[in-house]
Input
Amino acid sequence: MKAIRIHEFGGPDVLRLDELERPAPAPDEILVKLYASGINPVDWVVRNGGNDFLRPLLKLPMTLGWDAAGIVEETGSDVTDFKKGDAVYGIPNFPGDGSYAEYCVAKASQFARKPESIGFNEAAGVPLAGLTAWTALFGHGRLQPGQRVLIQGASGGVGSFAVQFAKAKGAYVIGVASTQNIDYLRAIGADEAIDYKTQPFDELVSDVDVVFDAAPHRDNNERLRSVTVLKEGGILVSVNIDFPFSEAVTQALAKKNAKGELVANQPRQEWLAEIARLIDAGNVKVFISKVFPLEQVADAHRESETWHVRGKLVLEIRKEGEPK
Ligand SMILES: NC(=O)c1ccc[n+]([C@@H]2O[C@H](COP(=O)([O-])OP(=O)(O)OC[C@H]3O[C@@H](n4cnc5c(N)ncnc54)[C@H](OP(=O)(O)O)[C@@H]3O)[C@@H](O)[C@H]2O)c1
Output
């Protein structure tokens, strides 16, 4: 089978198309015939050698990609919840061998049934960004209907899902993005859209229950501005776990009896199933800004590295409708 692997850490040039044996599933695993893989910033962070958290866990050579959509080809002897032919999506093996390949094996618990109403390319854009948004908003942010949430990075992969999940929950959603994404934020359901290029959000917004920092900048001054818009007892949630809260941020939170949470996404099967239900009910759309063939993975990485992707980028591994 074809797989995109790295044998050394470095720039997009280290991505290599290799021919490998198709793997076999262990008793608790499924073998998935992959149709598409989502692209996430962590893919090129790993390609570059990782951060302090990831570096000790990375083993070369490795297949990148942790966002999969495909069809179950084979099940391990202990797997009871999937059968051959099921269409599935999930986060395989992070940060081990992943989804830039024609097949992958992974624990069945890392997958759920793919939403029926969307294709494989769209489905592959959902698991990692969607579960990150879900973990942050509901796992750590404890967002409730009627509450006010401010989402930074609202037009990106994580942010686009966060806006829609928060709306589906019945929250009042304020999204922050750059000028060219303001109409997009309204289109995906934000009640208010703030342009960070021209509008200081901390002068426009107050009384926020949850601030969700899903923007890429790792900047504690920005976090201090976020604390100013929080209500007493509010929650600041950041998914940039590699960048701890400064002492000043911690003190500002304490003064407001507010909490600060650093969030790693939890790949829970039941949350993935819930997200699939929201998509099939028409409450959440998947916005794919570009699809690349597997061989053009280096271009996909270069685009992701701009930090200005709207929605998701996807690698197409097989065309939909290709014989099973
Ligand atoms: N902890 C976890 O488990 C986890 C999982 C996934 C992602 N993450 C982190 O979450 C963040 C977002 O990831 P993603 O996949 O959503 O990335 P993404 O798809 O590349 O989106 C990034 C978004 O950030 C916005 N942005 C860029 N520069 C900005 C700036 N200076 N100020 C404010 N917004 C800015 C962009 O909007 P404009 O183009 O409008 O500027 C873009 O839509 C990243 O920092 C990533 O490392 C963490």
User: Anything to note?
Assistant: Residues 40-41, 129, 132, 152-153, 155-159, 177-178, 181, 196, 214-217, 239-241, 263-265, 307-310 surround NAP (CB under 6 Å). Residues 127-140 form the longest helix (14 residues).
